[in-house]
């Protein structure tokens, strides 16, 4: 164990006061919810059928109209330009309820998807029909978007469980600076108006996104970066005014292709962290029965650096990413099946490239090729901050080691 590891928080520890109000510990960002899948994950065994993932991510496109300073998908935007065709998206939508057919232990089917991307998902004109089809097939949908293109697809988004808008700023000046936007476009105003309109539309039409459920709705997403920490309170106040259900803060992390590259490593100073603590403490005063403040830091250490406390990656059996095909695929309706949203574009984490038949997924999922990818992953030196850190810790500590003696409730 490294000298500084013993005091690093892990996902199995109680969240700090800066994460959320004590009365709201049962929230969408609390990783304890993963314990509800222990019995499913117990089936992850070599040579045995593996249950379909509860959640997958679908990236409709790698194109983007913003240039975020911390972009975690810059590699695919540069090296893997492209989008999923409408036919590919419809094929995927119809396959989701059938993922895992033939498994006698678990009912087949993915239960939820996150529509995100190596780019802005709403740039693909087929994204809205795809969302409609997925929901019609009984699968829940969450969407991550930069918010600039919401208006034309308002109705489709209003049927989602949640929509996270990555604003990452509290003022137009900071947005323009961090996302390489022209001030004369008034993009910040457009995003704020789009959010307010979407919230109002969903409520007036009594759609899922506008329900009074404490976790459904629009989230104002805010990645912490060196130039926006001082606007946390200002952004939260705005988010509450325009009807967002919550504001969600998380430190930006170094991308997978820059791990070990000191020049492109994202670092926070002690002053940055102190300012964050001051801002989040003030912002928590806005938290009430209609608005939630979530400062998600439990996947990082006290310096906001990666804190991957697990030995092997089992998350590659718990979720997946369906992405645009590589290069000029022979079949225009092809797609790529990846295993990690944090390492989009890394060929080492791709189970199938330029696949042409969605039914191939059932053959690949849990195959020996799948296990070989798991075997080759080097957590130290290859992986950035891990979105699925809690998944891996729970698998190792709760399932493999039974550290919680979870049967004794």
Automatic annotation (TrEMBL):
This protein's record includes keyword Iron-sulfur: yes
Keyword 4Fe-4S: yes
Ranges of residues in domain Radical SAM core: 50-292
Superkingdom, natural source: Bacteria
Cofactor needs: [4Fe-4S] cluster
Span list, region Disordered: 1-20
InterPro entries: Aldolase_TIM, rSAM, rSAM_sf
Example GO molecular function: catalytic activity
PROSITE patterns: RADICAL_SAM (PS51918)
Keywords linked to the UniProt accession: 4Fe-4S, Iron, Iron-sulfur, Metal-binding, S-adenosyl-L-methionine
Pfam families: Radical_SAM
Protein name according to UniProt: Sulfatase maturation enzyme AslB, radical SAM superfamily
């Amino acid at each position: 164990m490294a000298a500084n590891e013993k005091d690093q928080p892990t996902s199995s520890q109680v969240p700090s006061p800066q994460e959320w109000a004590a009365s709201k510990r049962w929230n969408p960002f609390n990783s304890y919810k993963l314990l509800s899948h222990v019995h499913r994950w117990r089936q992850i065994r070599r040579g045995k059928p593996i249950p379909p993932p509860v959640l997958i991510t679908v990236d409709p496109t790698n194109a983007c109209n913003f240039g975020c300073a911390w972009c975690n998908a810059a590699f695919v935007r540069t090296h893997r330009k492209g989008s999923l065709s409408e036919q590919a998206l419809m094929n995927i939508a119809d396959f989701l309820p059938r993922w895992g057919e033939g498994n006698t232990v678990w009912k087949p089917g993915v239960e939820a998807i996150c529509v995100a991307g190596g780019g802005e998902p709403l740039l693909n004109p087929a994204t809205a029909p795809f969302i409609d089809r997925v929901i019609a097939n009984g699968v829940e949908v969450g969407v991550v978007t930069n918010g600039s293109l919401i208006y034309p697809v308002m109705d489709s988004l209003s049927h989602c469980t949640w929509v996270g808008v990555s604003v990452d700023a509290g003022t137009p000046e900071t947005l323009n600076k961090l996302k390489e936007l022209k001030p004369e476009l008034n993009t910040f105003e457009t995003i704020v108006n789009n959010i307010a309109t979407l919230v109002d539309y969903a409520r007036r039409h009594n759609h899922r996104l506008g329900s009074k459920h404490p976790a459904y709705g629009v989230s104002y997403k805010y990645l912490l970066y060196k130039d926006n920490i001082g606007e946390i309170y200002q952004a939260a106040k705005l988010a509450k005014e325009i009807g967002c259900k919550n504001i969600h803060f998380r430190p930006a992390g170094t991308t997978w292709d820059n791990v070990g590259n000191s020049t492109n490593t994202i670092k926070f100073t002690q002053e940055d962290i102190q300012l964050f603590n001051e801002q989040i403490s003030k912002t928590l005063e806005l938290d009430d029965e209609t608005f939630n403040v979530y400062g998600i830091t439990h996947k990082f250490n006290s310096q906001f650096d990666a804190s991957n406390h697990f030995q092997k990656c089992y998350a590659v059996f718990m979720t997946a990413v369906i992405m645009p095909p590589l290069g000029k695929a022979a079949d225009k309706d092809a797609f790529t099946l990846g295993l990690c949203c944090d390492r989009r574009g890394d060929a080492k984490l791709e189970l199938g490239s330029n696949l042409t038949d969605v039914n191939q997924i059932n053959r690949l999922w849990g195959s020996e090729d799948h296990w070989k990818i798991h075997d080759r992953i080097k957590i130290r030196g290859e992986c950035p901050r891990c979105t699925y850190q809690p998944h891996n810790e729970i698998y190792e500590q709760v399932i493999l080691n039974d550290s919680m003696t979870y049967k004794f409730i």
